[in-house]
Amino acid sequence: MEAKHHGVLPSVVVCPRCNKECSFREDKHLWYCSATRVIPKTKKRKVCNYTVSDYHGSFLHRCSIPPWKLLLFINHFLSHTWDHKTILDCLQFSSKTSVDWRSFCCEVLDAWFTNQPAIGGQGIEVENDETLIARCKYERGRILKQVWLFGGIERASKKRFVVALTGEVGKQRDRATLLPLIEKYIIKGSIIYSDSWGAYSKLKELNYIHHQINHSQNFVDPDNTAIHTQNIERLWRDIKDHVKRPGIRSSYLYQYLAQYLFISDPTITSKNRVHYFLKEAARLYPPQGGRVRADPKAEVTSSGDELELV
């Protein structure tokens, strides 16, 4: 596995004792320092002998599974046909091992989901919208458990972002919530198309070119057919189709959402999907470094509350 190419394993290790580059023994996956230093009292030279595993700090540290098996597992996880039984039969994983590594994969995609890049730019057309994706089933539980999504998509490249709105109901889609998200995820100077929701009324003051369509009257402006939000509406439909499949549990909503967005990202193809996943895993578990955790998100459900995907 070309783990160094993906950033999972280090290409250079500096000795923390003498601040010199270590040498690498590929047969033992070990970095070692053979530099010598002078002991002040005796004036004798002493070899540093610092050693560290090539896997130290990475997600491969203390992993007993061969890397090629992990690659097959990750590749299967990133497919549209995930099947737990296939992993058990073909890779001969135990059920616990499969669940543990699937949790790791979900953690990596969760980190990717919380660090989505901004889209748009000068003169680039972007559609943005919000949608309700989950609510309290049978009106049980607190109303706070409604889950709204807010997102945007470039018309030309189909690059997009999606974030969850987890604030208090009634304030999830207000101006104070949505405008900071727009400024964070949509670059200034973009041409934004949205519906006529009042929270978007100040976009022109934020250095955006803004066009609105009143969905209570038309879905496409009859006077200017370029004014519509059909692309973002299609994205919402695809997301809901994915997270409402048979067997999907609402308590894992964010996991399914992050997995779908990563797999269907237009900048990520089936050929480089594993590469981008490993690069994100390396960012989360930097080799020879400390642990980097993603910012925690609010829970979709709480004990006793049941959600219905809408």
From TrEMBL:
InterPro entries reported for this sequence: IS1016-like_transposase, Tnp_ISXO2-like
Sequence segments annotated as region (Disordered): 289-310
Superkingdom classification of source: Eukaryota
Domain ISXO2-like transposase residues, every copy: 118-265
Signal sequence segment: none
Identification of the protein by name: ISXO2-like transposase domain-containing protein
Species of origin: Plakobranchus ocellatus
